[in-house]
UniProtKB/TrEMBL annotation:
One Gene Ontology MF term: arsenate reductase (glutaredoxin) activity
Keywords: Oxidoreductase
Annotated gene: yfgD_1
Lineage, highest ranks first: Bacteria, Bacillati, Actinomycetota, Actinomycetes, Streptosporangiales
The protein's name in its UniProt record: Arsenate reductase
Sequence similarity: Belongs to the ArsC family.
Native source organism of the sequence: Actinomadura macrotermitis
Length: 118
């Protein structure tokens, strides 16, 4: 597997991570995950690779998160994965996935870790 970035071009943090990959000369595949959402199995694998629980990778401030009552959802990994796969806009972005690991690259330190892994 090559490097892949789960990207939302409307998100400034996502654009910044993509620009950092470009600047570093990293070859990658861009996955616009809102148009091509991950399956529950893909999401589970990527979050496990990142060492992150789904409730820690959720955008809880989004209106859909409030409508779904995510803040009150028990920490049942399978249920959270199911919800996030059904509502990909609730997944933190960007996520850089490499052969070795996955990083939610929302800040410069995380982007550096992603670049080191790519």
């Amino acid at each position: 597997m090559s490097t892949e970035i789960w990207h939302n071009p409307r998100c400034s943090k996502s654009r910044a991570a993509k620009a950092a990959l470009d600047e570093a000369g990293v070859a990658y595949t861009e996955r616009r995950y809102l148009d091509d959402p991950p399956t529950a199995a893909e999401l589970d694998a990527v979050l496990a690779k990142a060492g992150v629980e789904p409730w820690d990778a959720a955008r809880l401030g989004e209106p859909a998160a409030k409508e779904l009552g995510l803040k009150n959802l028990e920490h049942d990994r399978a249920r959270w994965i199911e919800v996030l796969a059904a509502h990909p806009a609730l997944i933190q972005r960007p996520i850089v996935v490499t052969e070795r690991d996955a990083v939610i690259a929302r800040d410069p330190e995380s982007v550096r870790r992603a670049l080191d892994s790519a």
